[in-house]
Amino acid sequence: MSHKKNLNFAKFLLLRYSNISFLKGNKMAKFNLKIAKFLDNIMPFL
Asked: How many domains are there within the chain?
């Protein structure tokens, strides 16, 4: 139950921050990709 909640929250954060980074430009988008990969790696353990 809480795993699914965490996943939805992470998606929400990613959407928010990817929108912001899109406005700020490419450097931020690349940073976002790293965060996305990091989240993918830690999600199974949450």
From this structure: 1
